[in-house]
Amino acid sequence: MLLTDRERRALILIGSALVLGIALIGLKAHKPSIFLGPPDCVAGQRRSITVHLTGCVRKPDVYEVEEGTRLFELLRKAGGPTEEADLEAVNLAMILRDGQRVFIPSRSRRAKPGHIPLKTLSKPSPTGKVNLNTASKEELESLPGIGPKLAERIIEYRRSRGGFRSIEEIKAVKGIGEKKFQALKDLITVR
Predict the structure, then answer these.
(1) 14 falls within a domain
(2) Residue 182 sits in a domain of what CATH number?
(3) Phi and psi of 65, rounded to 5°?
(4) Which of 49, 59, 60, 141 is least surrounded by Cβ atoms within 10 Å, i.e. has the fewest?
(5) CA torsion angle for 63, 117, 137, 174 (degrees, to 10)?
(6) Residue from 69, 133, 135, 74 nearest 104 by CA
(7) Residue 1 burial (CB < 10 Å; 0-12/13-18/19+)?
(8) By residue range, what is the domain housing residue 180?
(9) Strand, coil or helix: what is 147?
């Protein structure tokens, strides 16, 4: 049986319509998935952060904790403070950030303003430097030799100058000379 041109075109048209119809039905049946981002972005899940805890703690180390962890919780994980720890000098309710370095000072350090005991000068983890342009007063006080008044001066200098352009600029803050800068230079950043 021979088909006329008109019949052939009709068959091709019907075949094309069938293929298109099946494709559309398939698309409707497939529900597109909603992208929620990486697992740490899903509501209710907390991501892990890394924090360097040092100073007067029983087990100073780099710890992995959940985002939103407070300093007092990290201290428990580290076996607690040592007997010489000065917990009045830190904010135990501080929420920790990824890459943060937390220094727990000793009471003897506070008793001698301006004195930096050599045993408190430990190197931070590679990502644990304190950013002079964004650090809170408590974070600045976690640095060896930086007490409440000096932390306030650093913050005031930062406000008045629009931030630090280099770590060496911290020497322009009253109370920070070359010796103190040498003790801090590996622990601070401006980026």
Answers:
(1) no
(2) 1.10.150.320
(3) -135, 170
(4) 59
(5) -150
(6) 74
(7) exposed
(8) 44-189
(9) coil
